[in-house]
Amino acid sequence: MSLDNINLTGHFLIAMPNLADPYFAKSVTFICSHSEEGAMGIVINRPTDMTYETLFDKVNIKLEDTSIAQNPVLFGGPVQPERGFVLHEPFGDWDSSIIINDKTALTTSKDILEAVAMGAGPKKLLFSLGYAGWTPNQLEQEIVQNSWLSVQAKDEATLNKILFETPHAEQLNATMSLLGFDPAMLSDVAGHA
Questions:
Q1: Can you give the pTM of this predicted structure?
Q2: Where are the domains positioned within the chain?
Q3: Measured between alpha carbons, how far is 152 from 115 in angstroms, rounded to an integer?
Q4: Staple partner for 18: which of 87, 93, 130, 188, CB 3.0–4.6 Å?
């Protein structure tokens, strides 16, 4: 099986039951970039004990918008776990952003934090520490080895709902439902003809 020239940017990766790596077991990762140079994504269903309020305190920004103070910061993946990433609706002009698709962007600059703290940033967002990264062809090989399922939301409303509105504990099942079958039907053994 070959996955040459596949681009999973904007897709969800769902960890298969046989993926025992504690960073990724039962995880859902949103792929922000995928090219011949590798892939990067944010794990979206791993909330940490850290809240937005604590994060803003650590970076010396006063959080004036207290409505988001208790939202959890996510464990975005094991690469650069000290670095912050903001997955958000493409709203505003930030110093360091990539546009993933019409409904999603990823920003790493402090200016977005300052805007969010004042209530002037994007309303639909996720903060994460760290990201998931793959070297060239590594992700494709892991898919062939039955470590991941990939699925794209059928429309932008579904994408927004899963990313920004679905409780983290329900994101795995919500993403699995895009495939049209019950997660309990998954096997940790791949079949090959």
A1: 0.91
A2: 12-181
A3: 30
A4: 188
